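>> received
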Amino acid sequence: MAEWQTERTARDARLAAGKVFAKGKMVAPADVTKLLEAVIRTGDRVCLEGDNQKQADFLAEALVKVDVARIHDLHIVQSGIVLPAHVDLFEKGIAKKLDFSYSGPQGGAIARALNAGKIELGAIHTYIELFARYFVDLTPHVALTVARAADHDGNLYMGPNTEDSPSVIEATAFKSGIVIAQVNEVVDKLPRVDVAGDRVDFVVVTPKPFYVEPLFTRDPANITETQILAAMMAIKGIYAEYGIKRLNHGIGYNTAAIELLLPTFAEKLGLKGKIATHWALNPHPTLIPAIESGWVKQIHSFGSEVGMDAYMRARPDIYFTGRDGSMSSNRMYCQVAGLYATDLFIGSTLQIDLQGNSSTVTTDRIAGFGGAPNMGSDPHGRRHPSDPWLKAGREATDGDQRLMRGRKLVVQLVETFSEKMVPVFVEKLDSLELAKTFKLELAPVMIYGDDVTHIISEEGMANLLLCRTPEEREQAIRGIAGFTEVGRKRDHAMVAKLRARKIIQRPEDLGINPLDAQRGLLAAQSIKDLMHWSGNLYAPPSKFRNW
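>> returned
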């Protein structure tokens, strides 16, 4: 006779072992490593939240201290490998296999650990892809999560940084897993309940607040005139041309430049109300001037940003906020919104090849992709029309217009050379060599070329929708690749023909004088300016204060 309660029976045993170290659900910080040794089993799938912003840093450090003779060969399934402790798990043999989405500052360490055979890599996922697998074949046995506060029943309050937590906890709690939360404090009554207490098994109040990375703060003082020129081309050549109202931005200085040009350059073009009104976007401080100038109607966010709490609380018409007044974020919801409900994604990358494939994975750095592949893809499941979507669809096809489907605009905004004069345009992506070295079945490509509609560099803009052959596509890319080796190998005659067909457009073709690309066009010149634009509601992190 089949046994249908094995998972619940196993969960009961884990809970019973863990409760030895708890009073109700509360666990003292000094007992957390013992708790983890009691509830985790060798080979378990563990999600250590763990995304690219907030971090369950105390639980991460506690997990590193477990007895490797008792707990080893864990399978880590988490979106962000960000803290040194995350890599230490593999260095010590506590963890063996890794499925993740983003690594950021640990990109070099992961590459070294892979090279040393310390990590068995499952896959580098997109966010939605990894969240989806939590509910299919990567369901965590144990989730280590993080919240601002809990009450005595284990209800959790996330504040603006809800982020991945609902997806992680839902998958774990409803499939007989164990959920442990670190919180900054326990209170009698929470401002609001973001996660119900019946999904949380243990709570620990940590000695200091959890770590949050100010990942989306870009100091306007660091924006260059080259980036301003490219931003001007994006606004005039794409935003105005297609009438882009619903969009998502990457987090680079080049897209920050666009945000700071809306109240100035775009205002002079008469584009207010016609572009950039509805966003799927984290609370970028560089968007404050556009919000205060009446450009932005609505923003839904993946997560929060350090220093923006009071500003978002004071702008509920713009941000999604809870009954307590604080912003509500949700990475799953916002990723889906960015995939299906926006008409444009614009971001950057480290390498682009001759067909427009791009990757942030290089031979010595495995940074992961985060949400870019979801934002930067054309969703074939979309069925609702919009003017930008239909216009892009018409440009992409010569076929039967009655059955034509639209296209999401996916734009790569790059400089021909990145830091240390490393060319962005390459004949072959490094990720192909890396896949060969580590015997990966799938080369880590961030955005596939067939999803990319436009590429903008300081030399010009290539509209790949209008290309009709692979040769045209290659020359369109070479034609804006500047003095890189890729650019120097262009067919000048063919590039001239592509320019005549407006597949390639130079700044002057768009009526932009490069000499006008000056920092004076930015609505804010510094972090201090952003603070003033916000009415001093924005409280910049100390690392960005130089006054």
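>> Residues 225-242 form the longest helix (18 residues).
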